[in-house]
Amino acid sequence: MDSFIINEHSRQIHTQRRRDIIKRHPGVKVLFGAYPPSAALIAALVAMQWVVAWWLHHQPWYVILPVAYLGGAVINHALYVLMHEATHNLIFATPVGNKICGLICDFALIVPSAMSFRKYHLLHHQHLNNVGMDPDVVSQREGQMIGHGPVRKALWLALLSVSQALRPLKVPGQSFIDPWIFANIVLQMGVNYLLWLSLGWGGLMYLLLSTFFALGLHPLGGRWIQEHYYVMGRRQETYSYYGPLNWVMLNMGFHNEHHDFPMVAWSRLPRLYRMAPEFYQTLFAHQSYTRLMLKFIFDKKISTFSRWVRYDAQKYNVPTS
């Protein structure tokens, strides 16, 4: 039976590396804090998507689909990155201001996801790779359904938005609905209605397809494998990507850096890398998403279980070291 690779270290490597970097390079603290220009970028990207949706609203599906895949998915992926920034309170100093920024991201993403993402992504950081607590870890049943075959792995990547939507089922004991999530759903339903009045079904189809592709089998989709899956190179808790796509994905490839310092905004992550090269240049990092995705899909030795995880020793009856 397939199984995860058990990490014998109970503490995240990111916690210790953050302490070591601060001790050796105390100047990294200047990188901490919010980056308000991200709010203007959110507004610009949402407006851009609305303009493109208006331009496409009378076009046939065979025009809408490639534009959504080639362009819209890139923009909506960037909006998901900025939603991620808001989740870590890296746009404004107050949580409320960041929550509002997250809600605005959804105006082009169509799916009301900002507040649920905020809740479950913070659990991912708090319980990184902990089975039953980290919603980013596939369940045993999901992993077995995906298996090792290229077709099912490709389908899983293409339908990753479905797996993301089912995150709450992976973390028992967490109440899904709260006032902010409820407000997110109601607000987005109202926005979607107004967009339908203005853009029709064609415009809504473009925006929804842009979101679907941004979270699926796309040139940027290597990110979902890159971050924590062991596909090539050394086994690590987390992997970074230093290729050219960081220009359009707002440095989300700097994932070791992000987990080490979640208080550093996207625009400052490359500077963090340069300030502590002896910590990051010694780690394995990806340079090509194309090579990564092809390896993940077609290598039958690799599956969604190819990652380090931690188990609750009492809950899963795993002996402690």
List keywords for this structure.
321 residues; mainly alpha; two-stranded parallel ribbon; 4 strands; globular; disordered C terminus
Structure report:
- This protein has one domain.
- The protein is 58% helix and 2% strand.
- Helix 2 crosses helix 10 and helix 3 packs antiparallel against helix 4.
- The longest helix is centred in the middle third of the chain and has 36 residues.
- The C terminus is likely disordered.
Entry summary:
Helices cover 58% and strands 2% of the residues.
Distance between the termini: 23 Å
What's the number of extended β-strand segments? Answer: 4
Helix content: 55-70%
Class computed from helices, strands and strand pairing: mainly alpha
Give the SSE map.
Blueprint (H helix, E strand, L loop, with lengths): L4 E2 L6 H12 L12 H20 L4 H27 L7 H15 L4 H13 L13 H7 L3 H9 L1 H6 L1 H4 L8 H36 L7 H5 L13 E2 L13 H6 L8 H7 L1 H4 L4 E2 L2 H10 L9 E2 L3 H4 L5
Parallel strand pairs: 1-4, 2-3
Helix pairs in contact: 2-3, 2-4, 2-10, 3-4, 3-5, 3-10, 4-10
